[in-house]
Amino acid sequence: MSRLTTFAFLLIASVSALPMPAVAQGGVIDSVLLRWREPLAKCQRNELDGAIPTDIHAMAHVAMFEAVNAVAGKYQPYIAKIAAAPGSSETAAAAQAAHDVIAMTCADQKSAADTLLASSLALVTDSAARDSGVAVGQKAATAIIAARSKSGSVGFDGFFPAATAGVYVPTVRQVGILISRMTPWVMRKQSELRPPAPPSLSSEIWSRDYEEIRRMGAKTGSARTEAQTDIAKFWASRDVRIVLRQLVGQPGRSLVDDARFLALAEMAWADSYISMMDGKYAWNFWRPVTAIRGGTMDGNDRTIPDADWTPLTPTPMHPEYPCGHCLSAAAVGSVIQAEFGSRMPTIVLDMEGALLRRYPTADSYIDEVSESRMLTGVHYRFSLDVGKSMGHALGKLAVERYFRPVGK
Fold first, then answer.
1. Which of 196, 354, 373, 387 has the most crowded Cβ, counting Cβ within 10 A?
2. Spatial contact of 199 and 205, defined as CB atoms under 8 Å apart
3. What is the CB-side half-sphere exposure of residue 163 using CA atoms within 13 A?
4. What b/e readout covers 57-83, taking b as 16+ CB neighbours within 10 angstroms?
5. Across all residues in the chain, what is the average pLDDT?
């Protein structure tokens, strides 16, 4: 299993009088907000009665923000202000909120959540502050779960296309149809950021991007450099949110600031799936492996067919347009940019068995994640560009619409 380590940002007492998260062995920031990411990452979805994990992640982080913010009172809440007794523990509130969301939406991780809650609450030695914080966390989790009870995140994807008597229907479900119909966190409706139609098959853009991915995205005989192949493989199976951990617990930031930042990022990330699947099924555009193997079908003399062409990585089971990784990375990256601006510390990812990645800016992270999808042979460049544009717009919406400072 891959291990994310951070090049720690040492805490210097003179920088700020604000209470800071503890620094665990190896320099990794030990924040109550980060402890819950492991059980969340292990949540498995039961298609018949389980919620989609993107929704669970967002619920947990919004609940933690609501709980901590109820005590701190610094930002506008997602639903309504929760009453908190003076002196309530923010740590206890956050831990209880995350625990309750996981326990009620992710049954397979309840035992792990129970254990983690006990260890988290044991760190709060003031019993009165702990108990009142627990009460706040319980209220926050209950409110968020109730708010998402009709989000449409429970169910399963149907087979596609619809069955006709006597006609073969693929027995592997296409992914994301249910997600495309979910209630968004940030957007007003699923189609708010729906992209325009993909390029015409007779256009120069189509032939240009077809040729690029045919040359650069092939499993064998491609024009990729070794470094480009490393980039493609690095992001092929990784969650774009791995960069968030390093940005929590920075000097001068409070727990409520970090809770707000993660909640915004998780909301934007969850909505990126809704937006991408809305666009994918609205346009139902073909994947490179189909287009290149059937290159004579597009009616464009400038596209060269290759019946044996195979992408570097397996093609996902849903339509191509727009690029999902691109949309998600840009949504998360835009929240990062809005939160830190030029003060964003360089993000360094050192993962076992993978090339070291370094991102001095949010844009450098977004661009590399996006480029990787063309290099793997699953997305055309026009799809990369549209996905990034949608993600930037989504991240901006999250920051503009939610958790503004009180009084603004």
1. 387
2. yes
3. 7
4. bbbbbbbbbbbbbbbbeebebbeeebe
5. 90
Structure tokens at 287: 């994947």
What would the pLDDT profile of 269-283 be if each residue is shown by its tens digit? 999 999 999 999 999
Residue type, 39: P
CB neighbourhood size of 101 (10 A): 30
Backbone angles phi, psi at 279, to 5 degrees: -70, -40
Task: Label the pairing between strands 357-359 and 347-349.
Answer: antiparallel
